Hints:
This protein is of the alpha+beta class. The longest helix is centred in the C-terminal third of the chain and has 41 residues, at 614-654.
Amino acid sequence: RPQPKKSATRQPPTMIASSAAVRSLAASLSRTAAGGRTASAGASGAVRTFASVDIYSDFGKGVFTGKVADEYLKKQGADGSVLKDPNWTKTHADVVAAAVLDWATDNGANVYCHWFQPMAASGVRHGLTGQVHNMMLKFNDDLEPVYDFKGKTLIKGETDGSSYPNGGLRGTHQAGGYLAIDTSSPIFMRGDTIFIPSAFVSYYGAALDEKTPVLRSNAAVNKQACRLLRHLGLDLSGEWGKGVRSNIGLEQEYFLVPRDAYYRRPDLQMTGRTVIGKDAPRGQEMCDHYMAPPSSATPALAFMQEVQDECWKLGIPLKTRHREVAPNQFEFAPLYGYNTTQIDQNLMVMQIIEETAPKHGLAALLQEKPFNDVNGSGKHNNWSLATADGVQLLDPKDINEATGNDIAFPVIMSAIVAAVDDHGDLMRMAISSPGNDFRLGACEAPPAIVSMYLGDDMTFYLEHFKDGKGKGAYEPGVKTLDLGTREVLPFEVPAEDRNRTSPFPYGGSRFEFRAVGSAQNVSMVNAVLNTAVSEKFAEFADRMDAGESAEDIARETLNKHWRVIFNGDNYCDEAQEELTNRGIWRIDSGVEALHALTSEKNVRLFEKMGVLTREECEAREIVLHDHYAGTVEMEALSLVDMIHQNIVPSVKAAKVGPLEDLFEAVKTIKAALAGIHAAETSYEKAQLARVLRLETMVEIRAVCDAAEEVVPADLWTLATYKELLFLDTHVDAAPTEEVYEE
C-alpha cells in the first residue's frame, strides 16, 4: 500500500493556531486579494462596492477536492484521482491523511471533526449537525507537541450515540455510536477546523442519522437504473464511476428581522416562529417585495454578500440571491450538484446564514412559518437523475440519443409516474416538518395532495403513447413571443408554463419537489424519491429480464397510474375534491403522514431496496413524533411565558383588554401539556400536540392579538409585526460611509 512520504518530525509552531489567528490571516489575505485596499463599513448597511474577479480566485480553497487535493496529494506521491474511488479509505488512507494535514496547517487549521447529521435537528439544533473538535496533535517523549493525524483517524470516529434522538436504537448501557467518512462529499475547512462529512451508525450498523439512508438510496437507484438502462440500450456496467447518480438543487428561503426586535420576541428566540402577533396594516398584498431591488440602505444586501463570499470559499456555488414574496423574506440558490454534496452544502449555507446575520444587526429565521398571514419559507428540492458522465435521464433528447432508443424517455417517465402514485404517502411523510403544518396549501406551497404536473405537451405525448396512437420520440415544444416592437425582437420560450401549485412539477430535465420545508435536512426527502423510483426501475428490469417489452410495460404502467397526473390549479377547491376522489394520496395531518413511515407497504419498500430496516423505520417514526411534540411544547411554554410576563402586564397597565380570558388561556395550555405528558406513546403525544397547536393555540392567539389591538403602543412590550417585517421602512438616518485603508 502506498505510504506517506517520510520527513523529519514536524513541529507545530510554539503556539497552536487559534481561531482569532485564522481570522486575522483571512482578513490579511482578503486585503491582499483586493489589491491592498479593503472597504470597512461605517454602518451596518455598508455594501461591497467594487466588483473584481480576484475575489473568486478563492473559490473552493476551503475544500479538499480538485486542484487543491491534487496539489497536496502529489507531495505524498499520489494525486487527486485516488479520491474518485471510495476504496482509497483502504488503500491510501494514510496518504490522504498526510495530505489533509499539510493542507490544514498551511491554512492555519489544526483541529478536525467528524461532521454528522443527527435525526430531528430541524428547528432546534444550530447547523443541524453534530461534531466533536479534536486537535491534530500528540505529545512526544519530551512532552513536546507534534502534529498527529493518521489515516485511521481520518476514516473513522466514535462518539456517544445514546444522547442523540434514536427512537430506542441506542440506550445508555449500549451507547456506542460510530462515524465513517462519506467519500462522496469532500472534506472542507472553516476557520481552524477540518470537517469530515460522515455517516453515523450504531454498534450494529443501524442508521442514527440523516445521511445513511440517502447514501443507501443512492446505491439502490444506481443499481436499478443501470439495469433498466441496459435494457434500453445504454450499458453502464464496468469500472467504478460509470453509473447513475441523483442530482439536486436546493432553493433556500429565509427571513431577516432586526436583531433588537428579535430580542423582544421570546417566541422567535425559543421556537423560530411567532405564536402570537397582530397583522401589520401592510403585508404582501401588493407583492411589492418580490424580486424588488436589494436596498443598500438596510443591512440585508451586505449580509447576503458576506454569506455568498463565505460560501464561495467552501466551494458552495451560491449563485442566486433575491427578495422573496413576503416582507423581509429572501432566497439563496446554488448551482446543481450531486445530492450528498448538495445536502451537506445546504446545511452549511443555513449555518452561515444564522451566524452572519448578527454581524449585520439582524436575526435570520429559517423556520417554515415564522409569521402569520404572509408566505412561509420553503426549500424547493429540484431532483434529477444523470449518468456519471452527464447524460440526463429526464431530458428526452439526451437520454434517447444516449440509448439510441426513442422510447427510453417515456419508459423512464412512466416509472416515475408510478412511483409518485404508489408512494405519495411517503413523499408527504418526508416533508412533514413541524413548520410545514402552517405552510402547505397556503398560497406559498402546494396542498397535501400528492399529484404531479407534466405540462400539456408531455401529457399529450404520453397519453398517445399509452394508448398506442403515436410513434416517435418526444420533442418538447417551444413557442415564439413577439411583443410587436423593434427594440425587443421575437424570442422563444418553453411551451410549458410553470405550475407553482403542483407538489411535483416537471421543469425540463428535472422535477421540483416544491413542498419541502425551509428548515429541513432534505436527506429523507431524497432518500424517499430515490427509493420509490428505484423500486419501479427494478420492477421494469425484472419484467424485461423475463422477456416483456419495455414499451408494453410502460403503456400498462401509464394506464394504471394516469390519475396522479394533474396540470391544473391545485389550490382550487374543486380540483382538490377531484384529486381526492381519484384516490390520490392525501394526508392533511403531518402527524398522520409521519405514521405512514411504518405502514407495511412502506417498510417492505425500504427493506426491499436496502434503505431502511423495519427497526430503523419504527425508530425513526418515534424520533419524528417526539420532535413534533417537543416543538409544540416549546411553543406552548413560550406562549405561557409571554402571556404572564408581557401581555398581562401590558393589559393591566393599559386597563383595557381581555384579562380574564388570558388567565383562562394559560390554564388551558397547561392542561393540554399535562395530557400530552400522560400519553403513553410518541404517536399519541404527537396527535395531542397537533390539536394543541392547530386548534387550542390558534384560538388563544386570537385572544392575545385582540389585546395587542387595544393596548397603546407605548405599553406593548413585545416587538410587533410592523417592527419585525419592514426593514425598508426602519432605516437609520445616519448615512452609510465607507473608509478605504491602504
